[in-house]
Amino acid sequence: MSAADSRTENLGAAVSTAEQTTAAQAGAVTPTFDSLDPASGDVVGTHPVFSAAQVDETVARARAAAQWWGALSFEERGERLKQWRGVIARRMAQLADISHLETGKPTSDAQLEIVMMLDHLAWAAGNARKVLGRKKVRTGVMAADLGASVEYLPLGVIGVIGPWNFPVFTPMGSIAYALAAGNAVVFKPSEFTPGVGKWLVDAFAQVVPEHPVLQLVTGLGETGAALCRSGVDKIAFTGSTNTGKKVMAACAETLTPVLIEAGGKDVLLVDADADLDAAAEAAVWGGLSNAGQACIGTERVYVHEHVYDEFVAKLTDLAKNLRAGDDPEAQIGPMTMPSQPRVVADHITDALSRGARALVGGLGAVGERLVQPTVLVDVPEDSIAMTEETFGPTLAVNKVRDMDEAVTLANNSRYGLGAAVFAKQRGQELARRIRSGMTGVNLVYLFAALPDLPFGGVGDSGFGRIHGPDGLKEFTYAKSIAHRRLPPLLALTTFARTAKIDKLMATLTVLRHG
């Protein structure tokens, strides 16, 4: 299984008997599956497997709830979302602990994820009217007798299929904006982090008890496929590129539109005039935090030859002092998916067999649950460590003669999600030349924390946007209204139109456009 395939559930995968008790075996008992602590393998929680019929019933309830929620004013919805935000903030430690148990990430990182999410929730609620509310539209000289307006109305019911690597921040980038726009939401969290999803939905129900505006469906691949086919008005999916294609295929059966936030092979460029200490620190955080399990995590680094040796020395000094473990002192947690260490090992093995060198870590850094940091240099551009998403705590660092070469190599990828440039003089110029949905200049990751900025990719990284005004509009449709405000200056849309009017229309057209 590739790194991309393993990021989220396979919509077509069969449910194993070890994970699910079938109805035939258990009679009327609802099938269940367990979420596990990736550090120990211990059971964290047991959750129901929703059947296709149960998913359909959930969506039907959401359809009725959407009518009520969508009829509320922006201010009324905003007040409810503010209350939800308060519940999450006050109980943040509890949510962070569940995230730590299900993902293995350090509790401090889980808390940081929640803090960033709360800013987005506040922005979506506070800006929905400004972005989506009714606005007058200019009609122009030829239609001066008409008036027009446009507003953005909720689609109805949004299905959100979330990932496990950032189980709070990432799905809430869709959920919060969809709710603020007036939609009901059915949330299918990853089978690796159902407890996080349940916590968020239960917290929302405390402040919106009247109707099931935000509901949870849990399960494995079949549950996600059922949500795609359930007749929701849009699916927002975050996961691998391969699974994203399956989501699109399932949604095509009902002509359901999709938002796809898929994989990445993010790049970091270091120019000759860069602050090398800051660049090395950013590369380490971008590539190794969350055990490298981030779609916007840094995986490729291209460094100007004039500063390459100095940068690599600083980078390796930082990386070799980081440690993956399941104890409170460890900066990096275990790999969330049991299959992922093998993917990382395959990428390292392929790179080394093609002439790359491991300055930190290497094949011996890959354990059964823990993967220690690895820094590779002189990595061939056609190795899978440079072409496929690794999704582990590795960095591939190569020397370039100049930034033009760096940009060319950066863009030589089927992915295009995030990127970073460290430079003093040419940062903005280089950032604009990189084919990616987001690029940071002298920073990594932080574009995701800015609520005003849209987040999404191009190419195999997906399409559509969450966050910012684009993220609100993603869950709406434009409603245009034109009305007559004056008697017509020229009666054009009538069979009573005369030759005189046609001649006048032609004359005015030549004057305006000829």
TrEMBL record:
<dbReference type="InterPro" id="IPR016162">
    <property type="entry name" value="Ald_DH_N"/>
</dbReference>
<feature type="domain" description="Aldehyde dehydrogenase">
    <location>
        <begin position="31"/>
        <end position="481"/>
    </location>
</feature>
<feature type="active site">
    <location>
        <position position="261"/>
    </location>
</feature>
<keyword id="KW-0560">Oxidoreductase</keyword>
<feature type="region of interest" description="Disordered">
    <location>
        <begin position="1"/>
        <end position="23"/>
    </location>
</feature>
<dbReference type="InterPro" id="IPR016161">
    <property type="entry name" value="Ald_DH/histidinol_DH"/>
</dbReference>
<dbReference type="InterPro" id="IPR016163">
    <property type="entry name" value="Ald_DH_C"/>
</dbReference>
<dbReference type="InterPro" id="IPR016160">
    <property type="entry name" value="Ald_DH_CS_CYS"/>
</dbReference>
<feature type="compositionally biased region" description="Low complexity">
    <location>
        <begin position="13"/>
        <end position="23"/>
    </location>
</feature>
<dbReference type="InterPro" id="IPR015590">
    <property type="entry name" value="Aldehyde_DH_dom"/>
</dbReference>
<protein>
    <recommendedName>
        <fullName>Aldehyde dehydrogenase</fullName>
    </recommendedName>
</protein>
<dbReference type="InterPro" id="IPR029510">
    <property type="entry name" value="Ald_DH_CS_GLU"/>
</dbReference>
<dbReference type="InterPro" id="IPR012394">
    <property type="entry name" value="Aldehyde_DH_NAD(P)"/>
</dbReference>
<comment type="similarity">
    <text>Belongs to the aldehyde dehydrogenase family.</text>
</comment>
<dbReference type="Pfam" id="PF00171">
    <property type="entry name" value="Aldedh"/>
</dbReference>
